[in-house]
Structures are given as structure tokens and as C-alpha cells.
Amino acid sequence: MNIIIFTDTYPPEINGVATSTNNLYKLLKSRGHNVYVVCTNPYSKTFQFENDILRIPGIELKKLYSYRLSGIYNSKAMKIIKSLKPDIIHVNTEAGIGTFGRIVSRKLHKPLVYTYHTMYEDYTYYVTKSNGIFDRVAKSFVRTFSKVLANNTTEFISPSDKTKDAIRNYGYDSYINVVPTGIDFSKYSHDAIDDNMIKELKNKYDLNDCFVVLSLGRVAKEKSIDICIKGFKNFLKNYDGKAKMLVVGGGPNLVELQELAGELSLSDKVIFTGPVDPDEVPLYYHLADVFVSASVTETQGLTFLEAMASRVLVLARFDENLIDVILDNETGFYFESELDLSDTILKTINMDSSNKKKILDNATKLIEKYSLDNFYNNIMEVYKRALRKYW
């Protein structure tokens, strides 16, 4: 099968959509399909086509999370795509590249599969800079726009039931495929980790004989990392040992969080690594004793699954999207506030080894349903259903 994946963001960029589309590309390639990716070009203002990747230049919108907006049509890319004779157009974004993908589908008369990765209602403040009437108008536009896009799709994919319910509330009443992104969990296992590199990172960040709290992902307002930092501050008040918090990733909230750490006298306790190479991400999970997240804007929460695959205890602020992933006191732990987070971290420290092992074992079993095999089978069913509509 010839498959073209359209996405605004793609590695080396680090975020959930980039990870998801890259996982999809590699999985489909490994199963013998011809797969190509159309995305924006973060390197230059030129069009590039190398190693199955068509990169289209775009304008960097620094105030909008450094999002790159490409034009809705590129003649060079269109000529190449046409020569590839695609069977499926799989769009993973909306404006810019997403619109181009829809134009390609229409011009070539090919089925359009659309995955709705991002709950844009949670991001409107980047545009409105307010929580007032302008933000409410923006959210209303997002709901209407999302419904229109969903309705103009051959097959619609939601990565979680939470996103499915949101789209239903927007008024979309056609069939929705719930297909969680698959993850190659093998690269997070201890057997795949270079112990020498772990030692180097521990020395670099002074983590030897240290209890490590990890936050990993986009450093942005909607991730509520400030709650985790404040919770870590409360935790230190009740912990006599050596402890540090690692904030791994980059984003628009980085400077603000660094300032917060300074205000809380945590500059030497909270380490901001900045963005790291995607291939090195598994190493950082293996530096940690616990993984924490206060985000309630995830459509799936890939980092939670990655942490579980790394056999790291997961502490998350409750969100309905995580109900099938985190079973409180069975596969991980929920917290409600910065004060509650402090108590939860202490709870993990005071756990006996057998109970901790049981929780980690439960988590390892639970994530099996997010395996690459299951992901592949589910995505192929969607593709086949889309193709049947064009027979």
C-alpha cells in the first residue's frame, strides 16, 4: 500500500504529534508499505525531499508556540506525491499542511483518513491571551472548525475516548475509530539502555545517590508543570534525603518556570535540560524514581506509557483520559494538587519493595494493549474501510 502522512510537526521536533506520526511511519515501513511524510521544514526556507520526507517551508509563528504555518498548496510537492501514486492520504493536522493533504485527496480522488490529535480548545489562549469573551469566541470557532473537518473525512480517528467524546459534543455523529498510538516499548526496557550513558547523565546533573522526580515533554502552560514544581517544593520540606527534579523538554513556558524555580529557591534543585534528542529520551526515564505530570490536556498521554515501559512509577493529576491507563494504587497514582503531590511522592518512597514491584508489573501488563502489533492491526482496519468506500 502507498501511504502519504501529512503532519505539521515531525522529528527532530519533540511533541506528541511528532512522536505519533513518526511511530506510524516507521511501523508501516517495517510492515512493507511504501510510506512518505509531508511536513513543514524547520531547517530552512526551501523545499526538501530526502529519505521519504517532503519538507515544505513555512512561517514560524513565535507567539503561537513557534508553530510553523505552511501554504495550503505546494506544486513541487504535488508533482512528487502524484508520482508516488498514493492509496491513502492520512492527515494528522489541520491548517497549512493539513489543508494541503485534503486538497491532494480531492485532486487525486483518494480516501482521506484524519487523526484528531490535539484538543485545540486547550490552546486558544495562545491566540487570545485572555480567558474572557475573545477566548470563548475562539473556543466556539474551534468546535465548529473541528466538526467541519471531521465531516469532510473518509474515516475519522480519535486517539482516545476523551477526544471521541469531545468530538461528539461538537456535533459530529458519524462513526469514530478510537485508535491509540502504538509505542515501541522495547527501546524503553533496561536491556536497551546504555549504563555508561546513564552514568554520564547522572554525573552531568549531579544525580548520584539522589531521589529524582521527572517531568518530560513540552514545556508549555497547558502542561501545568508549575504545579509539579510547587509540589516538589512541598515535598522537600518533608524529605531529609537528597532530591532533584528534572524538567526535560523545551517550549514557551521555559523561562517562566525557571523564574518560578528561582522564586521558590529551587534553582539548584530543579534542573531544566532543555530539548533532548528523541533517541536519548529513554535514558531520562531511567534516571528517574518517579514520573510526574499535572497536565489534563492530553489526548492520549504517550509519556505516561513510556514511563511505565521504563518501569518508573507514574504520578498524574486525575484526568478522565487516563482512566484506562492509570488505576490508582494499582498501575500508578493520582494526585489533585501540589500539596497532594508532595504526599504522593512520599508515599512512593515509603512503599515496600514488593508492593512497588507489583505496581510496576501491573503497569507493564496494562500497556501491552498499546503495542505496535495492536496499533498496526487497528490502523489497517481503518485504511481498508476507507479504501472500500472508494471501490
Explain how this protein is built.
With 391 residues, the chain is an alpha/beta fold. It is 41% helix and 18% strand. It contains 14 helices and 16 strands. It has helices at residues 16-30, 75-84, 97-108, 125-128, 133-151, 161-170, 195-205, 225-237, 254-263, 281-285, 302-309, 338-349, 353-366, 372-388, and strands spanning 2-6, 34-40, 48-50, 53-56, 58-61, 67-70, 88-91, 112-115, 155-158, 176-178, 211-216, 243-248, 270-274, 290-293, 313-317, 333-335. The strands form three sheets. It has an eight-stranded mixed beta sheet, with helices on both faces. The protein has a six-stranded parallel beta sheet with strand order 13-12-11-14-15-16, with helices on both faces. A two-stranded antiparallel ribbon has the order 5-6. The longest helix has 19 residues, at 133-151.
Outline the biggest β-sheet. Answer: 8 strands, mixed
Number of helices: 14
- Basic shape: globular
- Structural class computed from helices and strand pairing: alpha/beta
Strand content: 15-25%
The residue ranges in which pLDDT falls below 50 over 5 or more consecutive positions are none
What's the arrangement of strands in the largest beta sheet? Answer: 3-4-2-1-7-8-9-10
Query: Mean of residue pLDDT?
Result: 89
Helix content: 40-55%
Global Rg? 21 Å
The helix/strand series, from N terminus to C terminus, equals: EHEEEEEHEHEHHEHEHEHEHEHEHEEHHH
Give the N-to-C terminal Cα separation.
15 Å
Number of strands: 16
Give the helices and strands, then pairings.
Layout: E1 2-6, H1 16-30, E2 34-40, E3 48-50, E4 53-56, E5 58-61, E6 67-70, H2 75-84, E7 88-91, H3 97-108, E8 112-115, H4 125-128, H5 133-151, E9 155-158, H6 161-170, E10 176-178, H7 195-205, E11 211-216, H8 225-237, E12 243-248, H9 254-263, E13 270-274, H10 281-285, E14 290-293, H11 302-309, E15 313-317, E16 333-335, H12 338-349, H13 353-366, H14 372-388
Parallel strand pairs: 1-2, 1-7, 2-4, 7-8, 8-9, 9-10, 11-12, 11-14, 12-13, 14-15, 15-16
Antiparallel strand pairs: 3-4, 5-6
Helix pairs in contact: 8-12
